[in-house]
Amino acid sequence: MKMSAEEISQVLKEGELEKRSDSLLQFWKRKTCVLTTDSLNIYADTQKRSKGKELKLQSIKKVDCVERTGKFVYFTIVTTDNKEIDFRCSGEENCWNAVITMALIDYQNRKAIQDFKTRQDNESASPGQQERRMARAP
């Protein structure tokens, strides 16, 4: 399953999100974020989008620890190497955690379908293996 460039770079959500810094004091820093169908792009400045970090959905294990307080919704993104990145967003807005979770599920589903089709294509390309499997069937 080949995806077109339009599908890969489709923007799902764009806006501001606060990220907890990795420093000792752990300040909340406002970031401009763009969620696409294959990554979450985090920019320090709204004007200069050239300097940013890209967090690919393939490197995200899950969205965890969702907690709602009076003003904010807090959540953690856990990466495949078990690194935790803390975020918060305003509770009034359509919150980022749900959109990121749905994008992650969509990505994982597309990948599973692609892997299944690749496996099917590989099996149909080697007819000897198909015959062996059929010989074992009752």
TrEMBL record:
Keywords for this protein: Cytoplasm, Membrane
Region (Disordered): 116-138
Compartments where located: Cytoplasm; Membrane
Domain PH: 10-105
GO cellular component terms listed in the entry, alphabetical order: cytoplasm; membrane
A Pfam entry, by short name: PH
Keyword Cytoplasm: yes
GO biological process, alphabetically ordered: positive regulation of apoptotic process
Example GO molecular function: phosphatidylinositol phosphate binding
Keyword Membrane in annotation: yes
PROSITE patterns: PH_DOMAIN
CDD domains xrefs: PH
Membrane topology: Peripheral membrane protein
Family under the similarity heading: Belongs to the PHLDA2 family.
Record's function text: Plays a role in regulating placenta growth. May act via its PH domain that competes with other PH domain-containing proteins, thereby preventing their binding to membrane lipids.
Entry protein name: Pleckstrin homology-like domain family A member 2
Protein's organism: Dicentrarchus labrax (European seabass)
